[in-house]
């Protein structure tokens, strides 16, 4: 399949041979066999690796790719395991893929009927890249999209309450491919996964509410649910179900149970319990982590809790709360709050 832009550079003019661009060498090597690696202006690249009739489209940051041992996009690993083709749009810096060169690239894909060559197409992204995946899925009618904690837009007139990514306020979110929720209309299925306890992410998710969008909650997973899904060993399974169109609410609920074996998730849950002064549930979480994972952090903390309880019993008084628990208890006096541990089935 040929590139919808310029042909791949000749070896003498290879992108990776340019100063500071050595990290592109691995992708360029793959592109020489069957695909392409094309620059889109100064801050973006399009990397395509053709393998099969199923296409995964991802949006990734250059600095994250450079940090990987193989200097390949994370999506490449997933695509290889499944025999999928990969199209990865790479950004240098916090661009949100808002550039005329990127718009023009997707225009050319549409003109060339690029996506028609594939039986299944899934756009996937997290956070800012979830925004890009939601915006550009419009160029592949009938495709699916899996968006984790996506932004709907960073236009300050609409989302001035989101103070993250301050550098993006100078970007244009009002012109082409600008408002992600509207751009998802042509998709056959869209799944949005987020933590509703993160106020900004919950507000963005509300803007995405459409009949064709299924929203799944990952409570206490934080701003980066992909990290918890990955730690629990289910991220690739979720992506696989999304690609196949089988990611129902029941399927996701069954997969999400694996969070109980995720050290990263239990650490977040424990931090929430401590911050809210829920000492009893901190103990429940620590016991779960100690028994299921034998993790030192939980074993050590559980021993501290039990030692404090034993000392209190010997002194004939209830265990004294930790300072953080005292402060949190005062702040939440009179308020009812569901237990994080109980809410998560621990």
CATH overall fold name of the largest domain? Rossmann fold
Q: Structural class from helices and strands?
A: alpha/beta
Overall 3D shape = elongated
Tally the helices: what do you get? 16
- The H/E string reads HEEEHHEHEHEHHEHEHHHHHHHH
Uncertain runs:
5-12, 328-344
Number of domains: 2
For the biggest β-sheet, the strand order reads 1-2-4-3-5-6-7-8
Tell me the distance between the termini.
Answer: 50 Å
- By DSSP, the count of extended strands is 8
* CATH class identity of the largest domain: Alpha Beta
Question: What keywords describe this structure?
Answer:
14% strand, alpha/beta, 43% helix, 2 domains, Rossmann fold, single chain, 346 residues
